[in-house]
Design brief:
By secondary structure, this protein is an alpha/beta fold. The chain has eleven helices and 16 strands.
Length: 315
């Protein structure tokens, strides 16, 4: 079969297409004929710590396809997803609702599992609360907007692109703030009547972290999920943390155990999958590339011109 590997060289990460044997699934795995796979910034862009310099690994993290032997349509976490076939752990397999195309299904798993983790499992977001998404036009940001709305929250989003924000207004973004800097506190306070937001999704990084703290309401929560700015350090206002009884948490799958991941998948199936089945949640796919164009798709992600997810069609 054809499959890509991701190499981490001194100057860049590179994708190479190779011939590999079809995987042989273990008893707790499913052999999946992959139909589509989505790109995830954390894997493909250097500096996110998912691959050590000078090494290589099978490329791709999640996909959608048919279970060989049964024809069942599944989507889920699948290491080595940029390939014609893959072995998916049974605990990671999620049924694909009839209304989703292969490309849409491939855009769901990791992104919306991360969003479920930070909005529901850790963030305890409730209907009527305010959600601030810093970096709302990135893949996780768009999914957080969509899921937050489906949960009944009001959403504020930041981005440096007026064009991208305009596109998200059509999806229901309540307040669009055009900025890449930590200068949105006053606008957030105005929008929330001086209260502040109940939950912040920080998809940008250290450059906006202090402003995220300032923008939180009493007993607010802050999820750190990405660092588009590459800044991994920030000052922490301990007085605000203390007096406002804030809760800060990270959102990453890097060190999670299999049982922890399984708990998120089961929660997703219970709480989010019905929303997809009913059409209340649908991933925003920015563009689709053919399998042979994966390096080009990676370049598009690095150019940061997309809104939502970039997907590769396999076969």
């Amino acid at each position: 079969m054809k499959a890509y590997v991701l190499r981490s060289d001194p100057d860049a990460s590179r994708l190479e297409l190779r011939d590999k044997p079809k995987p042989e699934p273990k008893p707790d795995q499913l052999l999946v004929r992959i139909r589509a796979a989505s790109l995830n910034r954390g894997e493909l862009i250097r500096g996110h710590g998912l691959i050590k310099p000078g090494t290589e690994k099978p490329a791709g993290m999640d996909a959608a396809g048919e279970v060989v032997g049964t024809g069942e349509r599944v989507m889920g976490r699948l290491p080595g997803a940029f390939a014609e076939f893959g072995a998916m752990d049974k605990q990671d397999a999620i049924p694909v609702p009839p209304g989703l195309s292969w490309e849409e299904a491939a855009a769901v798993p990791i992104t919306f599992l991360v969003v479920y983790d930070m909005l529901v499992q850790q963030g305890n977001l409730k209907a009527g609360e305010w959600l601030l998404v810093a970096g709302v036009t990135a893949g996780v940001g768009v999914a957080a907007l969509q899921a937050g709305m489906a949960l009944g929250a009001r959403v504020i989003g930041t981005s440096g692109s007026a064009e991208k924000l305009e596109k998200l207004k059509s999806l229901g973004l309540d307040v669009a703030l055009r900025t890449r800097k930590g200068d949105f506190h006053d606008a957030v306070m105005k929008a929330t009547g001086g209260k502040g937001v109940d939950l912040v999704v920080n998809n940008v990084g250290g450059s906006v972290f202090p402003e995220c703290i300032r923008s939180l309401a009493y007993e607010g929560r802050l999820a750190t999920v990405g660092y588009l700015d590459g800044s991994l350090r920030a000052e922490l206002d301990l007085e605000a943390l203390h007096s406002k009884r804030l809760r800060l948490f990270g959102v990453s799958n890097k060190l999670r155990t299999a049982p922890q991941r399984a708990a998120t998948v089961e929660g997703f199936k219970r709480d989010f999958l019905p929303l997809f089945a009913a059409g209340k949640l649908k991933p925003l796919v920015d563009r689709v590339y053919d399998f042979a164009e994966l390096p080009k798709a990676k370049e598009a992600m690095e150019a940061d011109a997309h809104v939502g997810k970039i997907v590769v069609r396999v076969g």
